[in-house]
Amino acid sequence: MLSEFDLIKHYFDRPVPGRATLGIGDDCALLTPAPGMQTAISSDMLVEGRHFFAGEEAQRLGHKSLAVNLSDLAAMGARPVAFTLALALPAADRAWLEGFSRGLFALADAHGCELIGGDTTKGPLTICITVFGEVAPGRALRRSAAVAGDDVWVSGTLGDARLALAGYRQEPALAAPLNAADLAAAGSRMHTPTPRVALGVLLAERGLAHAAIDISDGLVGDLGHILARSGVGATLDADALPAGPVLAAQPLALRRAFTAAGGDDYEICFTAPAASRAAIAAAATECSTPVTRIGRIDGAPGLRWTDAAGAPLALELASFDHFK
Ligand code: ADP
Ligand code: MG
């Protein structure tokens, strides 16, 4: 049998030299912040049956658990430094721990983000990660910073994760069941999202964007947080929303619904002055992250939609809410 401490030592305590002054093994880890930098901190919890299906493959769960946290740092423009991992496990299953830690560390190493501590207990499968990042004072991209006249931008594509969910559940909204290749392609967006860290860091470091948020519950709801915090409104072009490659082949109504309010996208929505357009395009090219301009911030509160021709559209869309 694997003891709690054997488990930590074997799967999570790695002899890699990192940024932390003291990593796993004591009552606390010790981090020494880079001189003059602020620490950005965020936690995200993933609960089996709530955020992922029971029996989900361990390796991609390891990836996603950290990816959703890195996405929060990206949305703030902070560079990842370290993270902690609190795990409730129903059993000390070696194959599961091997896969989970592989997926987790592959992404952690790609971002130079070091595991510095955590907690391990028996219980229903739950994964809670806290990430620590660094950002220069005054550079963090806050939700409250959107200004009337700003462009609204989104990274990557939206809606394929939501389409995969519809495919797995065989939702009646789908005109036809997804074929296996499409379901796998859309499913990869759901299972292994790409946190847009490099883009967020460039936007912040170069002072190109005003406000930003990562899209976890759907664009409408998440942009809504920016609008509320900033005391502004927005007008978006429903046909400019970049659909994922599988969703792009679906009927217009589904495309609009899933790009605007699908969720689980982990793209960044940000606002920026029109004067930043060329520099934003250059930054996007530099970090190989496509960005699309989808509308503008208005002084009048509320969210309004138009089609590609600029004609007003009445779209009734709501984002995901755990308690609704
Ligand atoms: P304490 O009892 O002081 O909370 P623990 O005995 O739970 O500490 O943990 C021992 C060490 O292992 C601590 O440094 C803790 O941060 C680390 N640790 C525990 N669980 C994990 C985990 N899942 N991943 C990484 N480090 C962990
Ligand atoms: Mg202790």
TrEMBL record:
CDD domains: ThiL
PurM-like C-terminal domain sequence ranges: 197-303
Source organism: Pseudoduganella guangdongensis
Remarks, miscellaneous: Reaction mechanism of ThiL seems to utilize a direct, inline transfer of the gamma-phosphate of ATP to TMP rather than a phosphorylated enzyme intermediate.
Binding site for Mg(2+) 2: D44, D72
UniProt-listed Gene3D superfamilies: PurM-like C-terminal domain (3.90.650.10), PurM-like, N-terminal domain (3.30.1330.10)
Pathway: Cofactor biosynthesis; thiamine diphosphate biosynthesis; thiamine diphosphate from thiamine phosphate: step 1/1
MF GO annotations: ATP binding; magnesium ion binding; thiamine-phosphate kinase activity
GO terms for biological process, alphabetical: thiamine biosynthetic process; thiamine diphosphate biosynthetic process
Residues that coordinate or bind Mg(2+) 5: D217
Catalytic activity: thiamine phosphate + ATP = thiamine diphosphate + ADP
Family: Belongs to the thiamine-monophosphate kinase family.
UniProt: substrate binding residues: H51, D264, F320
Boundaries of every PurM-like N-terminal domain copy: 25-135
Chain sites annotated for binding Mg(2+) 1: S43, D44, D119
Name this protein carries in UniProt: Thiamine-monophosphate kinase
Transmembrane feature ranges: none
The enzyme's E.C. designation: 2.7.4.16
Keywords per UniProt: ATP-binding, Kinase, Magnesium, Metal-binding, Nucleotide-binding, Thiamine biosynthesis, Transferase
Pfam families noted in UniProt: AIRS, AIRS_C
Binding site for Mg(2+) 3: D27, D72, D214
